[in-house]
Amino acid sequence: MNSFIIHGDICYSTDKNTLVTHEGGYLVCEHGFCKGVFDAIPDEYANLKIHDYSGMLVMPGMVDLHIHAPQYAYRGLGMDRELLDWLNTYAFPEESKYGDLSYADKAYTIFTDAIKKSATTRLVVFGTLHREATELLMDKLEQSGVVSFVGKVNMDRNAPDDLREASAKASLADTERFIKETQHKYNNTAPIITPRFTPSCSDELMQGLGELSKRYGVRVQSHLSENPGEVEWVRELCPWAENYGEAYNRFGLFGKPEKTVMAHCVYSDDNEIARMKENGVFIAHCPASNTNVASGIAPMRQYLDLDMNLGLGSDVAGGHSESLFTAMVDALQASRLYWRLVDQRQKPLNVTEVFYLATKGGGAFFGKVGSFEEGYECDAVILDDSLLPHPQKLSLQERLERAIYLGGDVKAMKAKVCRGKVIVRSEELGVRSEELGVRSFRKR
Ligand code: GUN
Ligand code: FE
Question: Which residue among 334, 363, 392 closes a domain?
Fold first, then answer.
């Protein structure tokens, strides 16, 4: 079960500075786990089935550390406001529709179909505050074969009437029920505690969420230091907190005791950064969103140099695209502007680094995920980059770079593997109709 070999032009990261490439390599997957990448098939695996993708790009599945499923319906619209105004004008009215399960069903079917067809194999997802709609979303994500953490959002203040829970107690009771109903229900889908952000959650609610996280061993996701107006508001709401991060940390919602991912961190001060480093908080860098809602540019070179836990987030629909290939390009471009306009000591990111962020960096939130090194869970994406023709000879690294910039995930995806299971084949993607090149291999 879940044991096979993938033959192709294989790329993966071992660390933030190292991209390994194997032209015509053999990736061995045994019981869903990578055994390594080899130039020839080792004797002990000679009887495994081969998926023959000769001449195609084979890379780890992409990891999206931050995405809002209910916002997918209006992606690409309403990019004309700053964060807080944008939330009130676009995000909140759309999210209030998810009290209607038939609307949620339609919208979440579209969302999960898009995720299935993308290069993403792992994601950390915001739902809405509606428990039933969020559980419906989890059912659909489970069916798609990807691995995800999904949060029922908490909001008990500073929101419109139809998007504000009745009280902290009511919000906590509903969240506890959500955890109990979903924690052991799925193979690939798990709940995550999701205070929207400090402005939406009273201290009493945060306190209770910290207790739930600890009692049930459930991870945490939220937003942090995204936008100047938001950071200023948190200062007013929590005068006792020395920085925004402390408004989570005080309640046990900041990497300890449970793994936590915070989106953005554009305006984190030195103390906040030091606490994130100490607590192992993951930062989801969301460059498209930070540009679209005019938040700013996160200091990613500084975070990389500090060896923080880092990955990328699409942040749909602050971000307009669910593609992690787009997110990689956005991260590269934003870092160049940061270097040019903000601080010339902060070297721009390179392709090796953003590929690491989109795979092994974000994958660490899920465990041994996002690489093809021995012991890693086998998530893979296969791209037929002959659909992006070129006259000149290119190295494998150049082919990868070009596929990233040219949107190869959309144009050329051939198959997707998650936890050692093929979950998407080319026929479903409408790219090519021929069968997968699967054949039995016998050593000559
Ligand atoms: N902060 C609080 N809610 C949101 C949201 O939905 N999107 C973004 N980008 N930031 C937020
Ligand atoms: Fe967000």
Answer: 363
Tokens of 160: 């419109």
Contact predicate 325/357, CB 8 Å:
no
What values do phi and psi take at 374, rounded to 5? -55, 135
159 within ligand 1 shell (Cβ under 6 A): no
155 and 10, same structural domain? Answer: no
Q: Do 140 and 283 fall within a single domain? A: yes
Q: What is the pLDDT of residues 305-319, one digit of tens each?
A: 999 999 999 999 999
Is the entire prediction scored with pTM above 0.90?
Answer: yes
| CATH number assigned to the domain comprising residue 90 | 3.20.20.140
The whole-angstrom separation of Cα 287 and Cα 304 is 15
Residues spanned by the domain of 150: 62-363
Q: Ligand 1 pocket test: which of 87, 94, 196, 314 has the largest number of ligand atoms within 8 Å of its C-beta?
A: 87
Pocket test for ligand 1, best of 89, 124, 197 (most atoms within 8 A of CB): 197
pLDDT value, residue 425 = 86
Overall average pLDDT of the 190-200 stretch: 99
Distance 100 CA to ligand 1 centre (A): 22
**151 Cβ below 6 A of ligand 1:** no
pLDDT in tens, 248-297: 999 999 999 999 999 999 999 999 999 999 999 999 999 999 999 999 99
Distance (Å) from CA 264 to ligand 2 centroid: 8
Return the pLDDT at 432: 40
Quick one: pLDDT band at residue 410, thresholds 50, 70, 90? Answer: confident
- Assess whether 175 and 297 both reside in one domain: yes
Alpha-carbon gap, residue 202 to 205, rounded angstroms: 5
Residue 23's domain is classified under what CATH number?
Answer: 2.30.40.10
**213: exposed, middle or buried (Cβ count in 10 Å: 0-12, 13-18, 19+):** buried
Whether 251 and 121 share a structural domain: yes
Whether 354 and 222 map to the same domain: the answer is yes
Of 214, 108, 209, 189, nearest in space to 366 by CA = 189
* Omega before residue 228 within 30° of 0, cis: no
Note whether 128 and 273 are same-domain residues.
yes
Confidence at residue 377, expressed as pLDDT on a 0 to 100 scale: 98
For the cut 90, the answer to whether the pLDDT of residue 408 exceeds it is: no
Domain count, the chain: 2
Res 430: pLDDT: 55
